[in-house]
Amino acid sequence: MIRILLADDEHLIRGALAALLALEDDLEVVAQAATGAEAVATARAVRPDVAVIDLQMPDLDGVTVAQTLATELPTCSTMIVTSHGRPGHLKRALAAGVRGFLPKTVSADVLATVVRTVHSGGRYVDPALAAEAISAGDSPLTPREADVLELALEGAPIDEIARRASLSPGTVRNYLSSAVGKTAASNRHEAARMARARGWI
Amino acid sequence: MIRILLADDEHLIRGALAALLALEDDLEVVAQAATGAEAVATARAVRPDVAVIDLQMPDLDGVTVAQTLATELPTCSTMIVTSHGRPGHLKRALAAGVRGFLPKTVSADVLATVVRTVHSGGRYVDPALAAEAISAGDSPLTPREADVLELALEGAPIDEIARRASLSPGTVRNYLSSAVGKTAASNRHEAARMARARGWI
DNA sequence: TCGGGGGCATGACATCTGTCATCACGTTCC
DNA sequence: GGAACGTGATGACAGATGTCATGCCCCCGA
What we know:
Two copies of one chain form a homodimer.
Chain A: E1 2-7, H1 11-22, E2 27-33, H2 36-46, E3 50-54, H3 62-72, E4 77-82, H4 87-95, E5 100-103, H5 108-119, E6 124-125, H6 127-136, H7 143-152, H8 158-165, H9 169-183, H10 188-197
Helix pairs in contact in A: 2-3, 4-6, 7-8, 7-9, 8-9, 9-10
Chain A binds a DNA duplex (30 and 30 nucleotides) through helix 9.
C-alpha cells in the first residue's frame, strides 16, 4: 500500500483527487493539506511514501515544499501537479529533487501510474512540458537583469524600479535595455512577459 | 436524478469531479467535455439538467458557453466553477444567465448542494466572490477604452495596438491616456494590469 | 430639435524610454 | 598579469509615450 500526502489549495480539487486515488487498490491518501506550510508540517507527522503537491499554493510554492521534503524526508518521493506548466517551474522543480511533474490535463490513470513510478524510485516528466522546457532553453539573463526585469513585471515606471532595486535609474535602463535585446521584445513590458513565459524570471 | 454535464479542460480535474459527484445518490454525470465547443455540442445532444462549466477553457470562455446554453437549452441550468475568481467574470457570468458561480476552493458538499440549488431554480454565488465584485465597483471605462486597454495587456507598442484595433496611433494614445487617468496608474501597462485585476477588461 | 456623450482623428508639447558610448571596480579563470 | 564578464554609474540622443486642446461625426435622450 502506497501512502500518499495530497496538497492543493483548492478544496474541491483536493477532495476530488483524493476520491480518485482512493479508487486504486494499492493507493491510500493518508493526509491532505491546503497550504505549503501545512503540507510540510503534515508530511513530518505522517511520513508519507509519496507527496502529490500542487504547484501554486497561497503561501509556499510547491517547489519550495518539495525542496524541504527532499532534505527532511528523503524516503518520501515528491511529485508536482500543476495547471499552468511554465518551463521554468519544471527546471526549478527538478533541481529541487522532484521525481514527477505533470499537468492537470493528464488522466487519472496516468496520475496513479506516476505515483507508483516515483514510489518505486523512477522519475516521470510530462513529455509535452519536457519538450517545452527544452525548447525554451537556458536563461540568457544575468541575475541582476532577471531581478530588474521581475520588478518591471507589474508595469511600474523606471524610477520606481530603481528605488525598489536600490539602483540608479540609468543603471536600471541599461539592464532593461540589455534584457529587451536578449528577449527580442520591443519594450521592457513585453520582455518581462516573455521572460516569465519562458521561466526565466 | 439530476443529469449533469461536466466541462473542464483539465482531464484530471474533470475525472476527479465526476468521481466525486458520482458519490451522490441523486446526481449523475451523463456527459463530459474538454473544451467549450465540445461542451455546447454535447449539451445539445444529451440535454442535461445542469451544466457545470470551468471558466477557463482553451477555445470558448466558460461564460460564452453559458450564454449559448441559456438561449439554446433554457431547461438546462448553468453553473460555473473557477480557479481564479476575478470580479469581472462574475458580472459577465450573471449577465449571461449563469445560476451558480463558485471557486474551486469550496468543498465537494457545497458543489453538490449548489447543483441541487440551481436545478431547483435557485441561484448561488460564492459570498467571497460576491463581496469582491461589489467592492471592485463598476467599470468606468468606455467600451472602446476597454478594447484598447485589453490589447495593451501583452505589452505591445502603441503602433501595434493601433494596427490591431484599426485605429490611428493618436486615437489609441488618447484612449490609453484616458484609461490611465481612470485607473490612477502611471502608465498603460500598469493600467492594463489594474483593470484586469478589477475585472474591467 | 437641441445638447451631451462617445467614437475617431490631428497637432503640439513635455516627459519617459530605449540605445549607445564610456568609465570604474571587483571577481574569475587562463 | 591580463582577458572576460558582471555590476554600477553617467551623459547624450532619438524615438516612444502621456497629456492636452481642438475638431468632426453620429446617436440617443430630453
